[in-house]
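Researcher: Re-running this chain for the archive, since the previous output was lost when a drive failed. Same request as before.
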Amino acid sequence: MREIVIISGKGGTGKTTVCAAFAHLAENKVICDLDVDAPDLHILLEPHKQRTEAFFSGLAASIDPQKCARCGRCAELCAFGAVQATAEGGYAVDALRCEGCGVCAALCPHKAIDTAENHCGDWYVSDSRFGLMVHAQLFPGQENSGRLVSLLKAEARRLAKEQGRETILCDGSPGVGCPVIASLSGAQLAVGVVEPTPSGRHDFGRIADLCRHFRIPLAVIINKADLNAEESAAITAQCAADGHTLLGTLPFDPLVTEVMVRRQALTESHNPLGDRLKDMWSALQDLRVSR
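Model: Regenerated structure tokens:
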């Protein structure tokens, strides 16, 4: 079994566009969308949910108005401003501000505050037109996305082993933070989608350092390469100097938007971009993906 994670140093580079095309081309795989904060692969694949599970993480406080003596001690103790006075003269917890530290519950003189596991979002096992898919959605303002990413990867691995799938193809989170580190954990190969701008090259350097730290081989695709030939050349030179495989380049083309609006992958119809992506997927198969 091999696990391929498609990443980018920043959002908007075309990572999901590439992942959708590879998901169309790959055989005997499990698809896993690890961008749990703002997922969008499901928009293209239109999965049918077969199983829905709640994701709980951290604690959330709540005040029992029947027990509350309206002393205001909880509001004084809360370092995050989560406990606020209500129009009726009592107090309530703002769920978006509550960090679940439990200070208010522990020190309330009337034991009017309880803490319970926080329902942060939901995760799913679905069928899509490209095959089995594991994905999730955090609720707005919720955290612990790294933990949810790890949960999704564990489920994808379980399903792949159970069903004899050869490949786990992951659409990773953008950036280099905790969700990305969780996305890369245990992977055999990373594919970095880069755009030829100063910020794109800078952020590419950060994900390259991250992959080097975890000893994960990195293959690179330069998207919209024709918009800035100088930056594209610099990224190509950086790949050669650091030993990263350059899978290829994609030009800027309005066709991408047209295909996205139709909720399709670029490889689902005959076009030059789709042909390039097919060549890149073939080149990816020839890479040694074991560490």
